[in-house]
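User: Fold this; tokens only.

Assistant: Input:
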Amino acid sequence: MPGERAEDRLVLRIGGADRDGFLKGLVTRDVRGPGEGLSYSALLTPQGKYLFDFFLLNRGDDILLDVKADVAAKLAQRLMMYRLRADVSIEDSGLGVVRGLGDAPQGGFADPRDPSLGWRGYGLDGGAPTIDWDAVRVAACVPETGVELIADDTYILEAGFDRLSGVDHRKGCYVGQEVTARMKHKTELRKGFVTVSVDGQAAVGTDIVSGERIAGTLYTQAGGQGIAYLRFDRAQGDLQAGDAWVSWDQAGVD
């Protein structure tokens, strides 16, 4: 299947002799080596909350960073704040993002989050968007920047970053690592994103209620399914989000 333009993405170019070590000390997953494909990673607050998520591609003489376009300037500004005296440059690469389903073509790279998300490429020819990407990611429970993933609010483990290959608990220190490690090793997750069945329609951000108690929030919906953030202990019995009824498979929670 041919690729299509991802018109809501922007690609930054990270250059300079210190680029690898600079990113290594900041983000949740190390950059892969040249020729090893994409990595998916995030930048957190010192308190361990999500700020930005992005893809990284090591081209040998630079690193491409594929991020949602409407937060790219804020991310670049944040990275520059951490640069200090490191030999690192951050600029718009001018490359467009092309993505598609199925196996990656020449010059494309498999999306590391889930096989169902297909592939991504940079500087390739692509057609107009036609794929319902919301339906694809809802089925795989993949949260989106600015929709399910909320800056200064979301915790990446509750957002499924372990499952999405977005965090490496064996790498060295990064911003927010202490809180993330504590959540991983010392607590049982009691809240998080799951794919739910939805009968009816509700606006993104609608509370999910069980009886008279709020049990979570319903986000993106497509094809009779939705991504929901649930408090697992409360999400029991009949669940309602506005005029929609919600159900979920508790056995599918990691």
